[in-house]
Amino acid sequence: MASLVYFKKLSEQPGSIRYTFGEDPAEMDRTLTMNTASRTSTSDDGNADYTFLKASRKINSLFEERSQWPERGMSAS
User: Fold this and answer.
1) 1 vs 7: CA distance, rounded Å
2) Contact at 8 Å (CB) between 33 and 44?
């Protein structure tokens, strides 16, 4: 069974970036906040489930590759 998660940057402030994410690009109704200094994230709804972890890891992976925070993206497994 395939698992997809999409994400898109909502806003950027000194020290943090907020992303919206979800399993459908038309219905990304959850958000996470990435601490840009520590590269750790928190789910804004407090639910650290598989979808949140997948989005967070992909965002960090793209940052590692490109040395800049992604505007949008997706992860499939």
Assistant:
1) 20
2) yes
In this prediction, residues 11-40 reach a mean pLDDT of: 97
Per-position DSSP letters for the chain, written without gaps between them: ---EEEEEEEEEETTEEEEEEESSTT---EEEEEETTTTEEEETTS---HHHHHHHHHHHHHHHHHSS--SEEEEE-
For residue range 41-59, list pLDDT tens digits in order: 999 999 999 999 999 999 9
pLDDT at 14: 97
